[in-house]
Specification:
The chain is of the alpha/beta class. It has 26 helices and ten strands. The radius of gyration is 26 Å and the shape is globular.
Length: 526
């Protein structure tokens, strides 16, 4: 029995650890690390002899390939940025003459890289298109993805934006991470230029904070095997992550590691799945056996993993965890809670001494229909207004959750009252009358606080400012100041950014809440 058959027999959805080899396989003319550096160097110095001069100097200094590339990344960023500011390199990103991102101190080289990787196109080879279709079918057979790639191939082409993308390391254990149906971009992303890891300083910082990556891997490994794809086994950066990870496992976990730790490597022209027994030495000098599969037939790998049949898809599990956690958080923080609904995994850390307990296992819709919409916390309602992803019953929302809403509250309601008969003497009707225009949501007193907030001609410049804003309040104020030039799609994107970047501050900032109220109003009432 092959090692992939053993994973299928365990019937546990794997974690994929994905490297640049996968993007290089499916994206047209996707560069290797060396090719990327050489291409970047040519932007300010076309003489290839000059590039080779630096490479040779690194070799004479006995630098490893990884050390050389990190050194070259540092050198290139410095020279690229100097050429940009001397107007020798023009980047058509934002305002051509005076882009707003420059004022915020974002590295021009990293902006160039972000723009380059955003524009990558699929390879249209019929064989690879067919193989990619097999990879896409794993969406409900993969529990999570860790990747060092900057591009957006995985989230846009493979998982069709169903997986939550987490970029910054602090996001790995944020309140919005549920350890399933998530993509962890540990070297940064083209969607966030500042997050990109390319220089020696970037990698040094990454090494110092790598314990967060290892902790996340340990959490994921408790329930899933890990399959590495798109890496060379000689990749120094990934080998160090693997060594750190293995050093943290218990003796019991290490004895069975062979079935839970698999390395898929590329071997040109090989249509079989060739299994090779390998060992890796941990930092504790313990030799750990694992299996490397060498192949050029990745479709066969995907087909085998596709035989896994989880009882509930990872997407459904994440949604359920999210709903349960939010209900628990809201209920536990309320002194008036009559009962709480709690997920089994949450029982260990909860103080239940002062409140009655109800454990509900089932789909979100069934639980809500059974126990009522009065349990729903504010954050779930705001999330539904932004993402339209909850499927709440409008009538139940109006007559259970929102019927006694205070006129001074800030809450998106138009999504639910649309098409409903709301009694004119009800509190909900009075609330609607008090919030049914942009001018009522952004009152004159609120507008006064926005006097010194910058106005922008287009959404891109506003969004650049939001990404660099020091806190939730500032980002939200910028949206309110520019609200009249925003389309519904622009406003939704802005609300998503604030909701995702500031999950803990969101419900404590009235400006952020007003942004969502404006979105709800524009989309469902005006």
């Amino acid at each position: 029995m092959g090692v992939l058959d053993e994973i299928v027999k365990l019937n546990r959805t794997p974690v994929l650890f994905v490297g640049s080899g996968i993007s290089k396989r499916y994206l047209y003319k996707y560069p290797s690390w060396n090719e990327l550096l050489e291409m970047s160097f040519a932007k300010f110095e076309p003489d290839t002899f000059q590039y080779q001069k630096h490479i040779d100097a690194c070799k004479r200094s006995k630098m490893s390939e990884f050390e050389t590339n990190a050194y070259m990344g540092t050198l290139i960023e410095e020279e690229f940025n100097k050429a940009f500011f001397d107007r020798k390199i023009i980047l058509n990103i934002g305002n051509r003459k005076n882009p707003s991102w420059v004022k915020r101190g974002i590295s021009p080289y990293k902006m160039f890289l972000a723009d380059f990787f955003k524009k990558q196109k699929l390879n249209t080879s019929a064989e690879l298109v067919d193989e990619l279709d097999k990879l896409k079918k794993l969406k409900n057979k993969v529990s999570a993805v860790i990747t060092t790639n900057y591009d957006t191939f995985l989230e846009e082409q493979v998982f069709s934006k169903d997986f939550k993308v987490l970029v910054r390391q602090h996001e790995l254990f944020s309140a919005d991470s549920y350890d399933i149906a998530e993509i962890y971009k540990i070297h940064g992303s083209a969607t966030d230029a500042e997050s990109i890891i390319i220089t020696k300083d970037d990698y040094d910082y990454f090494k110092e904070s790598r314990k967060l990556i290892i902790a996340k891997m340990l959490t994921l490994f408790a329930e899933s095997p890990i399959v590495f794809m798109g890496y060379s086994f000689t990749d120094e950066d990934v080998r160090e992550i693997i060594e750190d990870f293995l050093s943290c496992l218990s003796k019991e976990q290490l004895t069975d590691i062979r079935k839970h730790f698999i390395f898929i490597s590329f071997k040109k022209g090989e249509k079989r799945l060739i299994e090779i027994e390998r060992t890796i030495t941990t930092k504790n000098n313990v030799e750990i056996p694992f299996v490397e599969i060498q192949t050029d037939n990745y479709g066969a790998v995907y087909e085998k993993l596709g035989e896994i049949t989880p009882g509930i898809s990872p997407l459904r599990v994440r949604e359920t965890r999210k709903v349960v956690k939010t209900i628990v958080d809201q209920s536990m923080s309320s002194v008036d809670a009559q009962s709480i609904i709690v997920g089994i995994d949450d029982l260990v850390d909860m103080d239940l001494s002062s409140k009655p307990l109800a454990i509900a296992i089932g789909y979100k819709e069934n639980i809500l229909n059974k126990y009522g919409y009065g349990l729903l916390g504010d954050k779930l309602i705001f999330e539904d207004a932004i993402y339209n992803n909850k499927g709440f019953d409008a009538e139940a929302m109006c007559y259970e959750r929102l019927k006694n809403i205070a006129i001074t509250r800030l809450m998106p309601v138009f999504k639910y009252v649309k098409g409903q008969e709301i009694p004119k003497d009800s509190k909900l009707h009075k609330y609607i009358e008090a919030h049914n225009s942009i001018e009522k949501i952004i009152s004159k007193n609120v507008a006064k606080t926005l006097k010194n907030v910058p106005a922008y001609a287009g959404f891109d410049d506003l969004y650049d400012y939001m990404k660099a804003a020091p806190n939730c309040r500032k980002a939200a104020m910028a949206v309110l100041k520019n609200i009249k030039m925003l389309s519904i799609d622009d406003l939704r994107r802005a609300c998503k950014h604030i909701f995702e970047k500031y999950p803990d501050e969101f419900l404590h900032d009235t400006n952020a809440e007003r942004c969502v109220l404006c979105l709800d109003l524009m989309e469902n009432y005006l």
